[in-house]
Amino acid sequence: MNRWITILILLIVAAALAGILITRMQVWAAPPQPIAFSHLTHVQAGVQCLFCHSSPLRADIASLPSVQKCMGCHAMVATDKPEVQVLAGYWERKEPIPWNRVNYQPEFVYFSHRAHLASGLNCEICHGDVGSMTVAQPVVKMDMGWCLDCHLKQPPEKTARLSDCLTCHK
Asked: 3-state DSSP call for residue 118?
């Protein structure tokens, strides 16, 4: 009887560890996008992350730039490029670009980009070297264990109170 309980416990532990490893190592492929947007091209032109994704400076979320923001440059820059013409079509139709999310946090997770930027972190810490990507894709599985790994390495004065679940969970 004890032998079967031991085997059952070992199987449960093995399954849990396998699940954790698979989840932690899993990086999803880039989702299809309505416009073939290259971060690499924009970074090479000197555009910084926060120029287009400016909301983290004043809010907790990092939103996507509006069509108006894109057209602020592309009304005059690279207007002959096919993808810029697709962008201009959204502008003319007064439609938002239906981008597909690249990085995902569940609805029950609270995450503040503003707080992380204020603590001196840069975008590449979590999102990888997006500036060298022609197609944006996730580089890590942003799960609780991944967040804790980073937070536990920080000095106490630079990190959230991890003992309070409501720091991150709604």
From this structure: helix
Reading the block at residue 39, the tokens are 């971060």
Half-sphere exposure of 81 (CA within 13 A, CB side): 13
Six token digits for residue 152: 């536990």
- What are the pLDDT digits (tens) for 50-91? 999 999 888 888 889 999 999 999 999 999 999 999 999 999
Separation between Cα atoms, residue 147 and residue 103, nearest integer Å: 14
Q: How far is CA 81 from CA 7, 75, 86, 96, 126, in A?
A: 62, 12, 9, 19, 31
Place of tokens 């999102």: 127
Give CA–CA dist 155/120, Å, rounded. Answer: 13
Q: pTM score, two decimals?
A: 0.75
Q: What token pair was written down for 107?
A: 């609805």
44: left (phi over 0), alpha (psi -120 to 50) or beta: alpha
Phi, psi of 109 (to 5 degrees): -100, 130
